[in-house]
Amino acid sequence: MIGREKEQDYLNQCLESGRPEFLVVYGRRRVGKTYLIREFFHEYFAFYATGVTGEKTAEQLRVFHESLRRYGSTVKSRPADWFEAFGRLRDLLSGDNVPREPKSGKKIVFLDELPWMDTPRSSFKSAFEYFWNSYGSAQDDLLLIACGSATSWIIRHLLNDTGGFYNRVTRQLHLQPFTLAECEQMLSANGFLFPRSQILECYMVFGGIPHYLNCLDKRLSLAQNIDTLLLHPQGQLHYEYDRLLDSLFRHAQKHRAVIEALAARRRGLLRTELAADKEIGDGEPLTTVLAELEQCGFIRKYHDFSKKKNGSFFQLTDPFMLFHLYFRGGKEVSGWGQFVDTPAYYAWRGNAFETVCFNHIPQIKTALGINGIISQTYSWRSKAKEGGVQIDLLIDRRDDVIDLCEAKFSNGVYEISKEEYEKLQHRRIVFQQETGTRKAVHIVLISATGVTRGMYTDIAQVILDGDALFT
């Protein structure tokens, strides 16, 4: 298995706990939830069933019944409802020959794509609650795993439930996309010979989604893969954006409106600015949508350094969505090779590399050697109408240092020009004057391709190259 060391350790804790465990695994479509569970447990399941997308109650029950039969149930008729279905599961688990995980002896029940089982007026949730509360929660040798991509359902009905599942979930695992280091491991295992500069560009397009990386053809260049998978109308991932949203959220119109509004404003928007959009609106629905998008990892919520307690900014940081909305949202590109080395390409690449940095802040902190120091990340916007500046990523450290991070992606090794030197100096001075900070203000230059040492290099206290993001 590539990566996922922390996740595997967490699953081991579930096995070794000596108590009943109800684990909820969630995350965006294609991130590898099912693969992780099946591979880690080597399919030592006492019972495994999966929901079926878009099917009605009768079909969901039929599929569940087939799983019951596969794991030893002798009842031939399909369950009449979900209460009967979970009753049969209880009977199955109470038998003498139930398969167990060899080391821990636990009975593992894996219910995949659980939200799809909850069809309208089906009594699924009530029956599921009754199964766990009346039986599962008293079985010290039971590990129940509920998994699904419909994140809004998982959060609303399991994690934040105020009814029968209130405080019943014992563990939760939000599976995140791969980091750059894990992407590198996966591409290498699949026979790719991409240098790190191309792995960075691959991440800018596909993000750290294992399924997307598995779609790449090692016989083709990165540019050819982008053309074949994304830009061609018959490409395997050409329509993935819409499928992604529809799989995660049953009513995705407002989620889509928020995502597309944020994509149009790369630096992010305040909640009040989002609420002013007629397609989005305000109130509890917007609160829910923003929480779900953040929990899926599509957006980040952050504060302005000068307004830490007043208003939050929301920014789209999902590389795949940003790529789709840039190149398919009124900016059709017929071929990647025709787009590369154009001014529009360089503008996209610079912004996309900043997004990579936003998604690898722990790696940046590791490279700075400040893992043991309490710190917070912010953005900052100058109030000055003339000569004002904007800093997209700063790290406010408890050791009286503020790191102003500047991301650069160039064709070759980056060289700081006199113009850039003056620009960076101006940014630091304006920040110090407007914020009145008494902390030392360091400039951290993050260059994907490294930096040539020259007469202007000393403007940066710390220089990191692209390798720092692969730690």
Gist of the model:
The chain is an alpha/beta fold and 471 residues long. 42% of the residues lie in helices and 15% in strands.
Could you characterize what this model shows?
By secondary structure, the protein is α/β, with parallel strands linked by helices. It has 4 domains: 5-174, P-loop containing nucleotide triphosphate hydrolases (Rossmann fold, 3-Layer(aba) Sandwich); 180-238 and 329-344, no CATH class; 241-327, Arc Repressor Mutant, subunit A (Orthogonal Bundle), CATH 1.10.10.10; 360-470, Trna Endonuclease, Chain: A, domain 1 (3-Layer(aba) Sandwich), CATH 3.40.1350. It is 42% helix and 15% strand. The strands form 3 sheets. Strands 2-3-4-1-5 form a 5-stranded parallel β-sheet, with helices on both faces. The protein has a 5-stranded mixed β-sheet with strand order 9-10-11-12-13, sandwiched between helices. Strand 10 (390-397) and strand 11 form a beta hairpin. Helix 4 runs parallel beside helix 6 (124-134), helix 9 (196-206) packs across helix 18 (343-358) and helix 16 (319-327) packs antiparallel against helix 18 (343-358). The two termini are 18 Å apart.
